[in-house]
Amino acid sequence: MTKLLNYNSLLGLNADEIYTYLLIHEQIFDDIDLHSISLKNCVLEKCTFEKTILANSDLDSSQISDSIFSNLSFQNSDIVSCNFENCTFKKISFKGSSFSNNTFSNCKFLSCDFNHVDMHNSTFLNCVIEHMNVRQCSTSLNNFIECTFIQSKINGNFFFNILMNCIYKDTEIDISLVSSNFGIRQASLDQLNFSLYNLQDLQDKLVRNNDLFGAAVIELNTNDCSYDYSMLVCLQATFKQIENNIIIRSEELRFIELLLDYFVAEDLLAPITIIQLLSLVEKILNSNINNIAKSKSTLYLNYIYNVLFKAYQQFVSDLHNTLSEMANDKLPVTIKLTFENEPNVEMCAILTDFQKQLNIDSPAPVRIKTEKGSFIDWIQTHDEILKCLQIIISIIGLAIKLKPSSKKISSKSSSNNEAHKSEKSNISQDNSSNNSNIFSSNGDVLVQLPGSIIRQINQVQTEQAISNAVNVFVINNMTINNNYHGINKYNIKNVECFYG
């Protein structure tokens, strides 16, 4: 293992030198020429750089914490894959420098010159950025999380960034950038004095110019309920461009990947949307289109596909576990569904269609009454049908696990159920035991399936049930364009179920 070498202040740092695996602790560098210095895999702690020339330098894969950089030049430098924590940059010239894959946590940038800077794939977390004037620079695919911008101006080539929960004080942002960056939400719009009327006007203009991608990004910023629809529009617009051999910027495709990463991590996309997005990307990749636009996009479309497929697999796994825990005692159950507004299709009819798809031998669910106000739908059925309902509400993105209350069950049924669970548990343990031992008694390596593949095999029935649920949506003409006829996560307020 490579060890860090302690920095010896007597030896000093010199311009044009390369330093690797160096630990520099509590050192002051004042009025020194360190141009073209290279620091790679180094650690700097509690250091101060004052009036120092660091132009044409390389900072690579280094960690810098609790340090101060003041009144110095970082011009034409490369800062790559570094981690800065609790650092202050005051009156620094970054002119002509390149930032890539860096993380800045709890840092302050005070009156720094970012002119002609190339900044991408970097994260700014809880940073203060004061008197930042972004112009004549390339700034893309960065994450600004909970940052505060003070007396700054952002315009020009500032595209495809994510700005979440940021505060803007006396700051100006070109309104057109709302169509190419995500996270400028309602509170931010108010701070920036953007009116929804002006944004609507910009959105209409983009639609007239066939820039559906930009129009969809504005919708993402201004409408919290539009994530599913807007992401589908983004990918559909991408498909149209590829069909017409219109080259798409790689940054735009990477931006879609970043957005999907964020929405998936925050559970903001319904699984049925993820399924539709997967189908759309797969359609693009497997199409017979053979042009330059597709060849230049394929790599990034595969990145997008991987994000979606991973999210889909996680959904299947979670749903499989939820269904495995549900009882199947063939007991009568009453379901109470509370809607914001009455849906255009009866849940009872959907459950009946789903029951037929799954060949469940049970009495069909029956609507017993409805109530007005918030629309309330009461359904009488048996607990086998609860799995149908669980799949439906899970696929539309409702994080509700159905667990009937006031369960009435005979001791015989209970013991049979426990025996079944015990048997199931023993089988699971046996599989786990078999998989953990990869050597035979004579030391030969045994052939075995990886755990991930075994899990997929176990989840085949769940995936088939998901496919059947999608068929039910198709049969009932439930699409995102008609908000699934009111069977969606925004209209369903609560789901309860009771035995008896």
Automatic annotation (TrEMBL):
For the region Disordered, give the residue spans: 410-434
Q: Name one Pfam family in it.
A: Pentapeptide
Q: Supply the InterPro entries for this chain.
A: 5peptide_repeat, PA_immunity-related
Positions the record marks as coiled coil are: none
Show the ranges annotated as biased composition (Low complexity).
425-434
The record, for SUPFAM superfamilies, names: Pentapeptide repeat-like (SSF141571)
Q: State what protein this is by name.
A: Pentapeptide repeat-containing protein
According to its UniProt entry, this protein's organism is Hominilimicola fabiformis
